[in-house]
Specification:
Layout (H helix, E strand, L loop, with lengths): L4 E6 L3 H12 L7 E4 L16 E2 L6 H15 L1 H5 L15 E5 L2 H16 L5 E3 L1 H7 L10 E4 L5 E2 L2 H14 L3 E3 L3 E7 L2 E7 L4 E9 L5 H7 L6 E13 L9 E3 L5 E5 L2 E5 L18 H14 L6 E14 L6 E4 L6 E5 L9 H14 L13 H5 L10
Parallel strand pairs: 1-2, 1-11, 2-8, 4-13, 11-18
Antiparallel strand pairs: 3-7, 4-6, 5-6, 9-10, 10-11, 12-15, 12-16, 13-14, 14-15, 17-18
Helix pairs in contact: 1-6, 1-9, 2-9
The structure holds flavin-adenine dinucleotide.
Length: 394
């Protein structure tokens, strides 16, 4: 480890590693990069507890563009992250997302977002209950008034492979990863002069990037800045269904806030806790009760075969939830010119990691966005309390 770095990234999971990757790939950058990550196994990170899915079906046009770049990045993944012939297997399964509506208000929302999505070039269409039934014959569509379905461009990957790809290539490019924790930031006027580590090291730096996931606010607090991001519990369940379903089971999102999709021979599901409040940063407990109380009744309502299922596995996780507008915060802190945020993904950050890495690398290298302008997602809106809303939250 050197004594000082041009860029110090706090957190080395998906977001930190994507930023390290894009910076170190950019020939115009050429600086030194340190990634500080206390847990190289990522056992408790969101990145390894994720639903691992990509979609075009957002309500906010900018989020559609962000995911479309993510999908484009996957297309070329092998060439971009290869090191000595080694490429982690993404194993993309293009199943699409299916959003259900059971009342006119819900249908109107799906339809309005559908127009936004079409305008952004998304491959998506509205289906009547009959069309939904024909395409997904295992579904009970009695309560449906309509649905919206994407294409095989949307789907799921092995998220661990994405993280490994970013990290292996960043390391290959000369990025240093250190197993340590950031415990303080030294301010010097309108800059962060140095980063303090739990080991006692003090690392002078040019830029600091906050990629600390659910602990983003802890880092912002060190700089004396507000950040409305809190950890929210989300439990994932994997189940087996005794009666096999032959047809595609896309990532289906119900109006009750339950989602399910097929994962090889099994199914993955989860819902929103009835009491959706901030939890302790270390609280990764599995909420077993949610399966019977929230998830199973909804599964059985839409798919009669799901009345007879068995839970095979489950795990707790957390969203880094932006309570202002359920959207990411990216770019410089207004009052601290060399502190960058990459936080608050509210459950859709995996697919946003390529665009976020590219965006931060452009800001640091050129002082501006050169490809996709992410400035509406900047920190200024937090200071002004002006939401830039994403309403299609799963
Ligand atoms: C159940 C669940 C389902 C999801 N499903 C999807 C999905 O289908 N599609 C999608 O796009 N997204 C999904 N997400 C969201 C996605 O997983 C996250 O947005 C993404 O992984 C965030 O990556 P990150 O690097 O910002 O955060 P994390 O993966 O949480 O990483 C943050 C890192 O910061 C480190 N850190 C914390 N404090 C410090 C410190 N003081 N010093 C140094 N390092 C520190 C931590 O150790 C951690 O490794 C889901 C998330 C969950 C929990």
């Amino acid at each position: 480890m050197q004594t000082s770095y041009d860029v110090v990234i706090v957190g080395g999971a998906l977001m930190g590693s994507s930023i390290a990757y894009f910076l170190s790939e950019n020939p115009d950058f050429g600086g030194s990069i340190l990634v500080v990550e206390p847990d190289p196994t990522y056992e408790n990170a969101q990145s390894t507890r994720s639903g691992n899915s990509f979609r075009e079906q957002f309500s906010n046009p900018l989020n559609i563009k962000i995911s479309q770049f993510g999908l484009e990045f996957l297309d070329d993944f092998e060439h971009r992250v290869v090191v000595d012939g080694d490429v982690p297997d993404l194993n993309f399964r293009g199943t699409g997302y299916l959003f259900l509506a059971t009342n006119q208000e819900g249908l109107a929302r799906l339809d309005a977002d559908h127009l936004v999505q079409l305008a952004e070039g998304a491959d998506v269409r509205m289906l009547t209950p009959d069309e939904t039934q024909r395409q997904f014959p295992y579904m009970s569509t009695d309560t449906l008034v309509g649905s919206r379905f994407g294409s095989e461009r949307e789907g799921s990957i092995d998220g661990w492979a994405l993280l490994l790809g970013f990290r292996q290539r960043a390391r290959h490019n000369g990025v240093t990863y250190v197993a340590d924790r950031v415990v303080g930031l030294d301010r010097d006027g309108d800059r962060i002069a140095a980063v303090r580590l739990a080991s006692g090291s003090v690392v002078p730096c040019g830029y600091v990037v906050n990629a600390a996931g659910t602990r983003a606010k802890v880092i912002a607090d060190m700089a004396g800045l507000p950040l409305p991001i809190e950890p929210r519990s989300r439990t994932t369940f994997v189940f087996d269904c005794r009666q096999p379903i032959e047809e595609n089971v896309p990532l289906t999102v119900t109006p009750e806030g339950v989602h399910f999709r097929r994962e090889r021979q099994h199914y993955v599901t989860g819902g929103v806790p009835l009491d959706d409040r901030p939890v302790d940063y270390d609280d990764l407990a599995t909420r077993h009760n949610e399966f019977e109380e929230i998830v199973w009744p909804v599964l059985a309502k839409y798919v009669p075969q799901f009345e007879r299922i068995a839970v095979m596995a489950s795990w707790g996780g957390q969203y880094a939830y932006n309570v202002l507008d359920h959207n990411l915060v990216i770019g410089p802190a207004e009052s601290l010119v060399n502190l960058m945020f990459a936080n608050g993904f509210s459950g859709h950050g995996l697919q946003q990691s390529p665009a976020v890495g590219r965006g931060i690398s452009e800001l640091i290298t050129y002082g501006e966005y050169r490809t996709l302008d992410l400035s509406p997602l900047g920190y200024e809106r937090i200071v002004r309390n002006e939401p830039f809303v994403e309403s299609a939250i799963i």
